[in-house]
């Protein structure tokens, strides 16, 4: 009997020491963005050259093939208490969307002067993991513009 109690105690201790996972919360068709435990970064793919006066496309993807981008915003405040509509992929109070083509955020800019720049807004990217859970990722990007040749 003591061996059984000892074994149960060991199993309980081991299971209680395991990492706790956040629970996905839903409110109707909306999911709370509280499960942001994955270390997924936004990666910027810059063109070889950026010239004053020429339209340039900047592309952003995630660092994980497990997370497919479904929406991207700027001028948007999101945190772990925000909700996303699981049908339309919209977040309340986030109205300025960026173009999203084949799991890639596309930003078109036409720089008017040379120098070093940072995209002026924080980009909020929404992904859906293979587990079906929506997560948000934030970032921006730097770029250098050269004079016309």
UniProtKB/TrEMBL annotation:
Domain of life from the UniProt record: Bacteria
Name of this protein: Lipoprotein
Organism this protein belongs to: Rhodocytophaga rosea
